[in-house]
């Protein structure tokens, strides 16, 4: 059995990771007493016993825990960091196995893995295949209108929505700064900053990221079948993928349909006479966007059978 310590298990992501790991016989979870969660000496003892530590903390706390782990020297465990503290920093490996054919192997051999952001997972899943195929320029002017359930906003947002104090839908980050933008640019290869417009709907879980394009933004004209082929080739060549491409033309899209799973689904809609196309990534922001992705990375890092998580 592999020993896992979740630093920050009381939060939304930590609880869901714990729930998934408890269902598998391969893992033994190391528990810390609630009163000792901020006690460095108590955490250090558990970290020294663990094969892998999962960090479900705010960024500054995650950095502190990494320093604590580094102080263990040869006893230091592997780390999956679910915060945004290390997503664009070397030597951390980006924990999106479907990024490219090499990424799964990089994660499997990594000591430190940084879990992707939820919105970034959807955006990168849409953009990276187009850039890799050479049909979208790294200098393209990109917009990424997106919506998520309120569970991704932390305790205060969850309490506000569940007590009926929040609106049915609201846009945020309207200063056009968001922590997911740097990782989107780095792991897609975009050189021009995308216009990322996130919003929150009055539903707990679920997410849709959109990539609207005109044909003149592409390097060559592409039909819907062409776009499906590009996505199908990118994800079809991967040995282990939780990303699928829906070949049926969408007419409606339920943002919550993949809740409780680690799947991400890509949809493609086109209006060929006007040259418009719309790509959409649907996922559970707490599944493939957080806890499910972390468990997927844990399994890869510990060399376990590569099974689908749902």
Task: Please tell me about this protein's structure.
The chain has 310 residues and is an alpha/beta fold. It contains nine helices and 14 strands. β1, α1 and β2 form a beta-alpha-beta unit. The model has no long low-confidence stretch (mean pLDDT 95).
Question: What's a concise summary of this model?
Answer:
The chain is of the alpha/beta class. The chain has helices spanning about 10-20, 40-50, 60-70, 105-110, 120-130, 155-160, 180-190, 225-235, 285-300; strands at about 1-5, 25-30, 50-55, 80, 95, 110-115, 145-150, 170, 195, 200, 205-215, 245, 265-270, 275-285.
Topology of this protein?
Blueprint lengths: L1 E6 L4 H11 L4 E4 L9 H10 L2 E4 L3 H12 L7 E4 L11 E2 L8 H6 L3 E3 L3 H15 L10 E7 L4 H9 L6 E3 L9 H8 L6 E3 L1 E3 L5 E8 L9 H13 L6 E3 L18 E8 L4 E8 L3 H15 L9
Parallel strand pairs: 1-2, 1-3, 3-4, 4-6, 5-6, 7-9, 7-10, 12-13
Antiparallel strand pairs: 7-11, 8-10, 11-14, 13-14
Helix pairs in contact: 1-9, 5-7
Largest sheet: 8 strands, mixed
Q: Helix amount, in percent?
A: 25-40%
Cα(first) to Cα(last) distance is: 22 Å
Unreliable stretches (pLDDT < 50, length at least 5) are none
What string, H for helix and E for strand, traces the elements in order? EHEHEHEEHEHEHEHEEEHEEEH
Shape: globular
Give the beta-strand count. Answer: 14
* Helix segment tally: 9
Gyration radius, rounded: 20 Å
Q: What fraction of the residues are assigned to beta strands by DSSP?
A: 15-25%
Average residue pLDDT: 95
- Which structural class best describes the helix and strand composition? alpha/beta
């Amino acid at each position: 059995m592999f020993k896992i310590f979740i630093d920050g298990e009381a939060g939304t992501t930590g609880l869901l990771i714990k729930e998934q790991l408890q269902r598998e016989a391969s893992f033994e979870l190391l528990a810390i007493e609630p009163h000792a969660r901020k006690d460095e000496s108590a955490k250090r003892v558990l970290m020294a016993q663990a094969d892998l530590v999962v960090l479900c903390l705010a960024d500054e706390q995650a950095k502190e825990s990494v320093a604590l782990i580094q102080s263990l020297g040869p006893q230091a465990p592997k780390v999956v960091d679910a915060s945004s503290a290390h997503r664009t920093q070397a030597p951390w490996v980006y924990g999106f196995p479907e990024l490219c054919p090499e990424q799964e192997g990089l994660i499997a051999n990594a000591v430190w893995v940084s879990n992707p952001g939820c919105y970034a997972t959807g955006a990168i899943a849409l953009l990276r295949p187009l850039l890799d195929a050479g049909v979208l320029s790294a200098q393209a002017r990109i917009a990424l209108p997106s919506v998520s359930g309120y569970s991704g906003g932390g305790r205060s947002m969850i309490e506000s929505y569940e007590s009926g104090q929040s609106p049915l839908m609201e846009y945020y980050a309207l200063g056009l700064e968001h922590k997911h933008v740097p990782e989107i640019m780095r792991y897609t290869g975009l050189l021009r900053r995308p216009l990322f417009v996130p919003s929150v709907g009055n539903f707990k879980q679920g997410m849709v990221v959109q990539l609207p394009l005109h044909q003149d933004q592409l390097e060559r004209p592409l039909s819907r079948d062409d776009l499906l082929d590009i996505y199908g080739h990118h994800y079809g060549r991967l040995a282990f993928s939780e990303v699928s491409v829906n070949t049926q033309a969408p007419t409606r899209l339920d943002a919550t349909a993949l809740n409780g799973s680690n799947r991400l689904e890509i949809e493609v809609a086109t209006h060929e006479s006007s040259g418009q196309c719309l790509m959409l990534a649907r996922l559970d922001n707490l599944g493939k966007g957080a806890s499910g992705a972390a468990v997927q990375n844990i399994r890869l890092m510990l060399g376990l059978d590569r099974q689908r998580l749902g």
